Description:
Largest sheet of chain A: 3 strands, parallel
Strand content of chain A: 15-25%
Shape of chain B: elongated
Oligomer: heterodimer
CATH topology of the largest domain in chain B: Alpha-lytic protease prodomain-like
Number of strands of chain A: 7
CATH superfamily of the largest domain in chain B: Cation efflux protein transmembrane domain
CATH class of the largest domain in chain B: Mainly Alpha
Order of helices and strands of chain B: EEHHHHEEHHHHHEEHE
Radius of gyration of chain B: 25 Å
Number of domains of chain A: 2
CATH topology of the largest domain in chain A: D-Maltodextrin-Binding Protein, domain 2
Number of domains of chain B: 2
Largest sheet of chain B: 3 strands, mixed
Structural class of chain B: alpha+beta
Shape of chain A: globular
Amino acid sequence: MTITRRAALTGLLGGAALGFTACTSSGYPADPDGTLDRVTGGVLRAGVVHHPPHVDASGAEPVGPEPDLIRGFAAAHDARVEWTVAGEEALMTALEKGDMDLVAGGLTSASPWTSHASITRDYAEAEGPDGEPVKLVMAVPLGENQMLTALEAYFDQRAAEEAR
Amino acid sequence: MTRRDTRETGPSGRRFGATELPPEIERVVQQAKRLEWATLGVIVVTIVLVAIVMGSSQAMRAAWIEDLLSLIPPIAFLVALRVARMAPTRARPYGSHRSVGVGHLVAAVALSVMGVVLVGDSLLGLVTAEHPPIGTFDLFGHTVWQGWFMMAVMALSVPGPMILGHKKLKLAEQLHDRVLYADADMNKADWQTGVATIVGVAGIGLGWWWADSAAAIFVGVSIVLDGWKNLKEAVTNLADRRAATIDGARPHPLIDRVERVAWAEPWVRQAGARVRDEGHVFHVEMFVVPHEGADVTVGRCCALRDAIAALDWKLQDVVVAPVDELPAEVHGGRSGEHQTGEE
């Protein structure tokens, strides 16, 4: 019993190692549903909530610091942005269904959507509705860890550029 | 006719209740104590480390809760040992050896809960197709995937319980301490969960969202089985079943040996013993049927009792009862030469 268990564990480990070498083309960590692969050189489906000062969606195209960040991220991955403006719940549902690649609009690290979406690390601080400081985040599809990693890496890169 | 040791001799630290411990067994006790304190130290360090890298990962959260649960058996051992040392009193004439049984039950419940939580949680994750998110850390200006940290911490947490559990198994057998035995199973569960988490997180990195849950179910099932085995053992031992080896697989060999000692007495026609596991030590009721016309003197009974007690340190609480017929449920029933080990 113990021996079979140990053999099976070794097999799992070995399989993982093999898979690792086989899958390096799609990156590590990889996306279970291939979000970043699809976005790269294609279309980034971004959903935003009208939430000044972070997002102003009253014009033809959303503007503000968060849409700028999203455009920058898309440009870094040769992608064109396709905007959707809607309420937070509608956008999160679309994100969960796989109809959206990224959601923004003044989301904070206290967001209650953690079981529906992957919430990024905070990229900036701002003043919240009650005057307390809040940490600004964005959301990507749940478990799409390559997308999450890429977006967080872009945040870090922007922060480093601004610090210079 | 119960052996009653004078309680004044020796410090209470060298005894289990009324039972005086041979020096080599006392050394094992001290070794076991040191191992359990070391275990507590290792677990506390792991709990702090995992809490730091945990993030929002459900997998790590589960591992963390398991670490909290694995604090229970070492604590149960240390408390049970302390209580078992207490000398018998008029109010507690059998001593407090049963603390081992109670500690074993507590440890078995902790182990079972850990297994059930692990399997339940992971099954739920698979059924609801929960895709675990693992993001990044900013490490001195470098964006590093958090999965690497998780795997590193888990890799660090594997050798400790692996070594400790292995050492405890040996001591548990010498001491006949089932709390220690259950704790060795808990250590096994700990390091196997650690390996499963490494495999799971590595799998998540490959885009296999199900890897973590699948690996957790794999080890979770074996933990549940270990928990169930210990639970059964603890309950049946508390319910006065025949003394058994530490793994519960066979009747304890001492039962056969005490009966042989009785059969060897020339005045004994039939002999059979009821031996129950009090925790560390055994309680022996030796029923003897004397030969017709043989004198059953206090001296003969005392000599038999002393001969039995001299077999092993675990045999101190020995009662010799002369009867005209053996109770049906005791092993034996024929004369010594013809009695076969039916077990």
